Amino acid sequence: MNSKDNEIKIMDQSCREFSKNLADKVPVPGGGGACALVGALASSLCSMSANFTTGKKKYAEYEEDIKNIIKENDRLRVRLLELVEEDAKAFEPLSKVYSLPKDYPNRQEKLDKATIDAAMPPLNMVKEIAKVIDLLELELKIGSKLMVSDVGCGAYLAKAALEGAALNVFVNTRFLSDKEKALQLNKKVLDILDEFSDKAEKIGDTVRKELI
After folding, report:
1. Residue-wise pLDDT tens digits, 189-207
2. Looking at the domain assignment, is residue 7 inside a domain?
3. pTM for the predicted model, two decimal places
4. 143: in domain
5. Which phi-psi region, left, alpha or beta, contains residue 136 (left: φ > 0; alpha: ψ -120 to 50)?
6. pLDDT for 43-53, tens place per residue?
7. Which residues contact 194 (CB under 8 A, 6 or more apart)?
8. How far apart are alpha carbons 84 and 36 in whole angstroms?
9. Number of structural domains, the chain?
10. Strand, helix or coil at 56?
11. Would 1 be classed as within a structural domain?
12. Which end of the chain is less packed: N or C, by CB atoms within 10 Å?
Protein backbone atom coordinates (compact mmCIF):
# COMPACT_ATOMS: atom_id res chain seq x y z
CA MET A 1 0.00 0.00 0.00
CA ASN A 2 1.16 3.54 -0.68
CA SER A 3 0.42 6.58 1.51
CA LYS A 4 -2.91 7.17 -0.27
CA ASP A 5 -3.95 3.61 0.44
CA ASN A 6 -3.16 4.18 4.11
CA GLU A 7 -5.82 6.90 4.20
CA ILE A 8 -8.36 4.08 3.99
CA LYS A 9 -8.78 2.56 7.42
CA ILE A 10 -7.30 -0.90 7.64
CA MET A 11 -10.38 -2.20 9.41
CA ASP A 12 -12.57 -1.02 6.53
CA GLN A 13 -10.86 -3.59 4.32
CA SER A 14 -12.51 -6.91 3.65
CA CYS A 15 -11.08 -10.01 5.31
CA ARG A 16 -9.58 -10.97 1.96
CA GLU A 17 -7.95 -7.56 1.52
CA PHE A 18 -6.56 -7.54 5.03
CA SER A 19 -5.13 -11.02 4.60
CA LYS A 20 -3.57 -10.09 1.25
CA ASN A 21 -2.04 -6.87 2.59
CA LEU A 22 -0.71 -8.73 5.60
CA ALA A 23 0.98 -11.19 3.25
CA ASP A 24 2.36 -8.57 0.83
CA LYS A 25 5.66 -6.73 1.04
CA VAL A 26 4.16 -3.66 2.74
CA PRO A 27 4.92 -2.35 6.24
CA VAL A 28 1.35 -2.34 7.58
CA PRO A 29 -0.64 -4.19 8.66
CA GLY A 30 1.94 -6.29 10.45
CA GLY A 31 2.22 -8.49 13.49
CA GLY A 32 0.86 -5.90 15.88
CA GLY A 33 -2.25 -5.22 13.84
CA ALA A 34 -2.82 -8.94 13.36
CA CYS A 35 -2.64 -9.49 17.13
CA ALA A 36 -5.12 -6.69 17.81
CA LEU A 37 -7.54 -8.20 15.31
CA VAL A 38 -7.17 -11.67 16.84
CA GLY A 39 -7.77 -10.16 20.27
CA ALA A 40 -10.95 -8.54 18.95
CA LEU A 41 -12.08 -11.91 17.60
CA ALA A 42 -11.48 -13.46 21.02
CA SER A 43 -13.64 -10.75 22.55
CA SER A 44 -16.33 -11.39 19.93
CA LEU A 45 -16.46 -15.08 20.79
CA CYS A 46 -16.91 -14.23 24.45
CA SER A 47 -19.77 -11.89 23.51
CA MET A 48 -21.29 -14.57 21.31
CA SER A 49 -21.44 -16.99 24.22
CA ALA A 50 -22.92 -14.33 26.48
CA ASN A 51 -25.52 -13.31 23.88
CA PHE A 52 -26.66 -16.93 23.61
CA THR A 53 -26.91 -17.09 27.41
CA THR A 54 -28.79 -13.90 28.22
CA GLY A 55 -32.52 -14.24 28.77
CA LYS A 56 -32.43 -17.97 29.47
CA LYS A 57 -34.21 -19.10 32.64
CA LYS A 58 -31.52 -21.62 33.43
CA TYR A 59 -28.96 -18.79 33.81
CA ALA A 60 -31.30 -16.14 35.25
CA GLU A 61 -29.25 -15.74 38.42
CA TYR A 62 -26.31 -14.56 36.29
CA GLU A 63 -28.30 -12.25 34.03
CA GLU A 64 -26.73 -9.04 35.32
CA ASP A 65 -23.21 -10.45 35.02
CA ILE A 66 -23.94 -11.70 31.51
CA LYS A 67 -25.17 -8.25 30.45
CA ASN A 68 -22.01 -6.71 31.87
CA ILE A 69 -19.88 -9.21 29.93
CA ILE A 70 -21.64 -8.21 26.71
CA LYS A 71 -21.28 -4.49 27.40
CA GLU A 72 -17.59 -4.67 28.32
CA ASN A 73 -16.75 -6.95 25.40
CA ASP A 74 -18.41 -4.51 23.03
CA ARG A 75 -16.02 -1.85 24.31
CA LEU A 76 -12.98 -4.12 24.16
CA ARG A 77 -13.72 -5.34 20.65
CA VAL A 78 -14.02 -1.78 19.33
CA ARG A 79 -10.92 -0.68 21.22
CA LEU A 80 -8.82 -3.53 19.85
CA LEU A 81 -9.90 -2.71 16.30
CA GLU A 82 -8.87 0.89 16.94
CA LEU A 83 -5.47 -0.40 18.00
CA VAL A 84 -5.02 -2.03 14.59
CA GLU A 85 -5.12 1.49 13.15
CA GLU A 86 -3.02 3.02 15.92
CA ASP A 87 -0.33 0.39 15.46
CA ALA A 88 -0.11 1.15 11.74
CA LYS A 89 0.02 4.92 12.30
CA ALA A 90 2.78 4.60 14.89
CA PHE A 91 5.02 2.64 12.52
CA GLU A 92 5.31 5.31 9.83
CA PRO A 93 7.18 7.91 11.96
CA LEU A 94 9.49 5.17 13.24
CA SER A 95 10.33 4.01 9.73
CA LYS A 96 11.13 7.60 8.72
CA VAL A 97 13.57 7.98 11.61
CA TYR A 98 15.26 4.69 10.70
CA SER A 99 15.91 6.07 7.24
CA LEU A 100 17.77 9.13 8.56
CA PRO A 101 21.57 9.13 8.24
CA LYS A 102 23.41 7.93 11.34
CA ASP A 103 24.93 11.40 11.83
CA TYR A 104 21.62 13.24 11.50
CA PRO A 105 21.24 15.80 14.35
CA ASN A 106 19.23 14.45 17.29
CA ARG A 107 18.66 11.16 15.46
CA GLN A 108 18.83 9.08 18.65
CA GLU A 109 16.43 11.41 20.45
CA LYS A 110 13.99 11.18 17.54
CA LEU A 111 14.47 7.41 17.41
CA ASP A 112 13.73 7.04 21.12
CA LYS A 113 10.52 9.06 20.86
CA ALA A 114 9.30 7.21 17.77
CA THR A 115 10.21 3.87 19.36
CA ILE A 116 8.25 4.59 22.54
CA ASP A 117 5.30 5.78 20.46
CA ALA A 118 5.45 2.56 18.42
CA ALA A 119 5.52 0.46 21.60
CA MET A 120 2.36 2.03 23.00
CA PRO A 121 -0.26 0.38 20.74
CA PRO A 122 0.96 -3.18 21.41
CA LEU A 123 1.33 -2.37 25.11
CA ASN A 124 -2.30 -1.25 25.13
CA MET A 125 -3.24 -4.41 23.24
CA VAL A 126 -1.67 -6.47 26.02
CA LYS A 127 -3.68 -4.60 28.64
CA GLU A 128 -6.98 -4.89 26.79
CA ILE A 129 -6.54 -8.55 25.84
CA ALA A 130 -5.91 -9.34 29.51
CA LYS A 131 -9.37 -7.92 30.25
CA VAL A 132 -10.85 -10.13 27.52
CA ILE A 133 -9.28 -13.15 29.20
CA ASP A 134 -10.85 -12.22 32.53
CA LEU A 135 -14.25 -12.03 30.84
CA LEU A 136 -13.71 -15.37 29.12
CA GLU A 137 -12.90 -16.91 32.50
CA LEU A 138 -16.16 -15.57 33.94
CA GLU A 139 -18.16 -16.59 30.88
CA LEU A 140 -16.83 -20.13 31.19
CA LYS A 141 -18.22 -20.27 34.74
CA ILE A 142 -21.64 -18.77 34.17
CA GLY A 143 -22.35 -18.99 30.44
CA SER A 144 -24.38 -21.50 28.46
CA LYS A 145 -22.69 -24.88 28.30
CA LEU A 146 -23.81 -25.12 24.69
CA MET A 147 -21.32 -22.35 23.86
CA VAL A 148 -18.37 -23.74 25.79
CA SER A 149 -16.30 -24.52 22.68
CA ASP A 150 -16.57 -20.88 21.58
CA VAL A 151 -15.26 -19.75 24.95
CA GLY A 152 -12.36 -22.18 24.59
CA CYS A 153 -11.60 -20.94 21.09
CA GLY A 154 -11.70 -17.37 22.38
CA ALA A 155 -9.26 -18.23 25.15
CA TYR A 156 -6.72 -19.80 22.80
CA LEU A 157 -7.04 -16.86 20.40
CA ALA A 158 -6.60 -14.42 23.29
CA LYS A 159 -3.47 -16.22 24.46
CA ALA A 160 -1.92 -16.04 20.98
CA ALA A 161 -2.88 -12.38 20.62
CA LEU A 162 -1.47 -11.57 24.06
CA GLU A 163 1.86 -13.30 23.43
CA GLY A 164 2.17 -11.76 19.96
CA ALA A 165 1.37 -8.24 21.14
CA ALA A 166 4.03 -8.63 23.83
CA LEU A 167 6.63 -9.45 21.17
CA ASN A 168 5.72 -6.21 19.42
CA VAL A 169 6.51 -4.28 22.59
CA PHE A 170 9.83 -6.07 23.05
CA VAL A 171 10.93 -5.53 19.45
CA ASN A 172 10.67 -1.80 20.09
CA THR A 173 12.07 -1.52 23.60
CA ARG A 174 15.31 -3.24 22.61
CA PHE A 175 16.22 -0.19 20.52
CA LEU A 176 15.73 2.38 23.30
CA SER A 177 18.88 4.13 24.47
CA ASP A 178 17.23 4.58 27.88
CA LYS A 179 17.63 1.02 29.14
CA GLU A 180 15.84 1.79 32.40
CA LYS A 181 12.78 2.90 30.44
CA ALA A 182 13.02 -0.26 28.34
CA LEU A 183 13.13 -2.41 31.47
CA GLN A 184 10.10 -0.62 32.91
CA LEU A 185 8.03 -1.16 29.78
CA ASN A 186 9.12 -4.78 29.48
CA LYS A 187 8.24 -5.43 33.13
CA LYS A 188 4.71 -4.12 32.63
CA VAL A 189 4.23 -6.58 29.81
CA LEU A 190 5.93 -9.51 31.54
CA ASP A 191 3.81 -9.04 34.67
CA ILE A 192 0.64 -9.27 32.57
CA LEU A 193 1.96 -12.25 30.63
CA ASP A 194 2.83 -14.11 33.82
CA GLU A 195 -0.77 -13.95 34.98
CA PHE A 196 -2.91 -13.95 31.86
CA SER A 197 -1.10 -16.21 29.41
CA ASP A 198 -1.46 -19.12 31.82
CA LYS A 199 -5.03 -18.11 32.63
CA ALA A 200 -6.03 -18.17 28.96
CA GLU A 201 -4.40 -21.54 28.44
CA LYS A 202 -6.18 -22.99 31.47
CA ILE A 203 -9.53 -21.79 30.15
CA GLY A 204 -8.91 -23.47 26.82
CA ASP A 205 -7.60 -26.65 28.43
CA THR A 206 -10.61 -26.79 30.78
CA VAL A 207 -12.95 -26.61 27.80
CA ARG A 208 -11.02 -29.33 25.97
CA LYS A 209 -11.29 -31.64 28.98
CA GLU A 210 -15.03 -31.02 29.15
CA LEU A 211 -15.44 -31.99 25.52
CA ILE A 212 -13.47 -35.25 25.34
Report:
1. 999 999 999 999 999 999 9
2. no
3. 0.92
4. yes
5. alpha
6. 999 999 999 99
7. none
8. 6
9. 1
10. coil
11. no
12. C
